[in-house]
Amino acid sequence: MELLPRSPGEFGSARYWDRFFRQRGQRPFEWYGAFPELCPVLLKYVRPRDKVLVVGCGNSELSEQMYDTGMCEDIVNIDISDAVIRQMQERSASKRPKMSYLQMDMLHMDFPDAHFQVALDKGTLDAVLTDDEEVTLSKVDRMFAEISRVLQVGGRYLCVSLAQAHVLKKAVEYFSQEGWVVRVHEVATSGDKQQFVLPVFVYVMTKFRKIPGSALQILEMCPEEQDKPLRLESTERLVEAVKDRQHYALLCSQLSKAPCGEQLSLDLCDKASGRPRYTLHVVDSPAVKPSRDNRFAIFIIPQGRETEWLFGTEEGRRQLAASAGFGRLVTVALHREQRYEGMASIQAELSGKVMELAPPGLPARQQVPFLSVGGDIGVRTVWHCDTSPLSGEFVVEDVKGDDACYFRRLVFLSNRNVVQSEARLLAPAPPPGQKKRRKDKKKPGPAEPPMAIDKSYLCCEHHKAMVAGLCLLGSSDPLPGTPIAVLVVGLGGGSLPLFVHDYFPQAHVAVVEIDPSMLEVATRWFGFSQGDRMQVHIADGLDHVAKLAAEATAQYDAIMFDVDSKDLTVGMSCPPPAFVEKPFLEKVKTILKPEGTRWALVVVPLQVPGLGWLVSD
């Protein structure tokens, strides 16, 4: 504890560092980042003939290892501590004649301008930039200015850092404003990851002549698992990308030490686009007695089934893990914007990354099983993507469900875990004279025409409840065949009004839909059509009911509400509050015939898909 400074300001004091190195003795002190881990990054930017300046060298072995491996020999090491410089001179004088150690303040260096091709800093910036005080920032500005002065155009400033947000932001803003190219590498770690949790980064700032009046910034990030850099648009975005890597490292560290009490989730993004490619949930089952073969498994959720209760809810995933019989199960959801070749390619792509989420005690070479339903990754065909001013981005897609049935879905991308509308598809009939094959394994391709809609099937449980109520209304009618007037608020894919139209011949259906894009979607993709007994009004449901109520004429035998608030903060699929408030319900009562019945979809919790309430009047 005697080696620790009394205050952060002592990190810039020569007296503190003299005392530090005298008490520590000859033992090398490495802040972080061993040479074998840093070497792949250093080799990209340090050439054998480069003249290299190491600022704040301390008694680190980094320069010696660079020299001894032949990476570079013309290395000048400087430090503010005279004690450590004398130590290092004694240690290397006879072994490394081309390398020198000088006692010097990096804020006031004696070197001429453009004297070096590389400036290397391992932990020095982190030690100096301890706070956001004006004195500290002024000192850092002088440090950066001196490094800039002694580097040639095309020279590289390599800064090894833990990348605290304020440190990274300061470095990136300073050098990018000077017209330098800034690239941040994450260092690939090896060995015992429990020893040091936070990842190490190397900032690579390449000096270019500043172009007057130019605001161009080139900012890039190189994660440890890929060589190709990702171009980022702003300093803030670069800082956020580094934070994501740090949070992931902390997450992996926590998972490697003990079971997690709550389910953890993370997105793995596509290298090229930066968009989410896989969504992972880590589920621990304490009740499972661990053995060699049931510690850890990966479950690939078939495409299009990620919204099902078993895969899309915490309780469902917990049941899945317990049923599978593994102590830790990682579920993997596939994203519709991405392409996947098959189970084998997904396994090859994920094997290295998911092992970072392994439970404590798992042997390093333990084979981890990849599981799925039926052994495949499912089928998803996206037929239509569009954007509506009212509903935002949405897609129409076909997915394969249980028993080889296919379903067409409308999904609003603002809430990917909720299927807005769903319809079952009919298998195409075989040509005349051709027998229908019992099992057709051919998957529908994008070029094939879509299958027909099965209008007899109601996918939503709350739709079934509404239709059941409508049956009760018909049974009380003394004159069978008497027309029934039905108002449906909310069209979606149109399955509910279609079913009422086709299976209640006496029903005359009026549908109110606020978004004209949904009428187009229902007509083109879900088999919806208007006619003598089916009319659609493009209007706000609240306004339409209010307008009818103002006419004071009872018009409808039944009113069905099938609307969603689209408010993600609610955490469930349900109508906007205005649809269940008393003043509005009074208006609804006004337009119902005296013997009529009212249905309302009140609440549909996400954790229990299909649960609906039937409200009768």
How would you characterize this protein structure?
With 617 residues, this protein is an alpha/beta fold. The chain has three domains: 8-236, Rossmann fold (3-Layer(aba) Sandwich); 258-371, Rossmann fold; 460-607, Rossmann fold (3-Layer(aba) Sandwich). The strands form five sheets. The chain has a nine-stranded mixed β-sheet with strand order 3-2-1-4-5-7-6-8-9, sandwiched between helices. A five-stranded mixed β-sheet has the order 10-11-13-12-14, with helices on both faces. A five-stranded parallel β-sheet has the order 21-20-19-22-24. Strand 8 and strand 9 form a beta hairpin.
Topology:
Elements: H1 14-24, H2 35-45, E1 52-55, H3 62-68, E2 75-79, H4 82-92, E3 100-103, E4 116-122, H5 124-128, H6 134-150, E5 151-161, H7 165-177, E6 181-186, E7 201-206, E8 219-222, E9 230-232, H8 235-257, E10 264-269, E11 276-284, E12 296-300, H9 309-312, H10 314-324, E13 328-334, H11 343-354, E14 370-372, E15 380-388, E16 392-400, E17 406-412, E18 419-424, H12 461-475, E19 484-489, H13 495-503, E20 507-513, H14 516-525, E21 534-538, H15 541-550, E22 556-561, E23 572-573, H16 582-591, E24 592-600, E25 604-605
Parallel strand pairs: 1-2, 1-4, 2-3, 4-5, 6-8, 12-13, 12-14, 19-20, 19-22, 20-21, 22-24
Antiparallel strand pairs: 5-7, 6-7, 8-9, 10-11, 11-13, 15-16, 16-17, 17-18, 23-25
A few lines on this structure:
This protein is 29% helix and 24% strand. By secondary structure, the protein is of the alpha/beta class.
